[in-house]
User: What shape does this take?
Amino acid sequence: MARVINFNAGPAALPLAALERAQAELLDLESTGMSVIEHSHRGKAYDAVHQQTLALVRELLKVPDSHEVLLLQGGASLQFAMLPMNFLGKDQSADYVITGSWSKKAFAEAKLIGNARAAANVAVDGKFTRIPKAAELDLDANAQYVHITSNNTIAGTQWFDFPETKAPLIADMSSDIMWRPIDVSKFGLIYAGAQKNIGPSGLALVIIDKALLAKEKETTPSILRYSTHANAGSLYNTPPTFSIYLMRNVLEVVKAAGGLEAMERKNREKGDLLYSAIDADADFYRCPVEKGSRSLMNVVFNLPTPELEAEFIKAASEKGMVGLKGHRSVGGVRVSIYNAAEKAWVETLVSFMADFRKGK
Ligand SMILES: Cc1ncc(COP(=O)(O)O)c(C=O)c1O
Assistant: This one.
C-alpha cells in the first residue's frame, strides 16, 4: 500500500488508524454481521456509535452542560444560512468580521436575511493577510451575534485570541476545530464542516449555547432549526451514519494520542518547523501573512515567480507530497497541516524546500 504525504486543504488527510479501523470493520461491525452503513439508525449498534461520537466531542473539547452538541448535514455552508435563519430577524442586525473568502460567504448569506454589518474587513487590494486587533472591531451594541472565522483556510490566517463580545460570539471553526483546547463557554455557537480535522465532508459539528437556542425564530422550517436536532439528539431524520462512524474513529485516535493538549503541541511544532524554514530563506520563500496571524493549519507562501511555484509543486508531487497548490483564487503554495499531518511529513517537506532552493 502506497500512501502519499497528503497536504490537501480539505477534504484532507485523516489518521491512518481511523481509516484502518473502518476497513477492518466494514463488512462486520462488532460481530453484528453487517456494516455500519447497513444498520438502522434507530438500532442499538448504530446508536452506540452515535452516542460515543457525541460523548467524545464533549470530552475532548470539555463542552459545558450549558451547550448542546449537534451532528448535522449540509457542511459548513448550510451553517452560513442556518445561523441567520434562526437568530437574525428582518429588522435586526448581526456583526461579521471579514477575514477571508469564507467569512465573505457567511456574510453574504446573512445579508439575504437581515441587517448584517461588517464589524471589520481586513482586505487590502482584495488580499487577506492578517487578523484584526480587538480595537479595530466596530461592534454594534444591538447586534444579535458576532461572527468570526477562526481559521482562514485560503488566506492562511488564524485567530489565536478570541474577541470579547457582548453579543454571543459565533465561530466558523471548520479548518481548526480541535487543533487545541478552547473555552467553549465563551461561544454562543461553534460550527465546523468535518472534512479537515475531524472526519468526512458533508457532516457538520455544531456546539450551541442553550441560552442562544432559546432565542430561535419559530418561523424557520423544522429541519433548519437547531432545536429540532437538539430535541432529537441529532436523530431527527436519518443521519449520515457512515460519516459519523468515521468521525468517532478519528476522535478515538485523537483521544488515544493525548487529546487536544497533545494536538496543540504537535501542531505548534509542525508550524514552527515550517515557518522557520520559510523565514530562513525569505528572499526565495515569502509568506504574505503578518506574524502573529500566521495559521498553524494552512501555511501559505510564494516563490519568486508563478513558474517557480508550478515547478516546486510538480517536483514535490514526484517525491510523494501532494495537495500543495494554493487555492485557485490566490495561487502560490499552501501546506495544510491539520491534526492528522505528521511532523515527519513537514520534515520531509522542509528538506525538499532546501534541496529545491539549492538547484536554483
Ligand atoms: C473556514 C471554512 N468555512 C466553510 C467552508 C465550507 O465548508 P463546506 O464545504 O463543508 O460547506 C470551508 C471549506 O473548505 C472552510 O474552510
Q: What stands out?
A: Residues 259-280 form the longest helix (22 residues). Residues 10, 75-77, 102, 149, 153, 172, 174-175, 193, 201 surround pyridoxal-5'-phosphate (CB under 6 Å). The chain has a mean pLDDT of 97. Residues 27 and 56 are 24 Å apart (CA to CA).
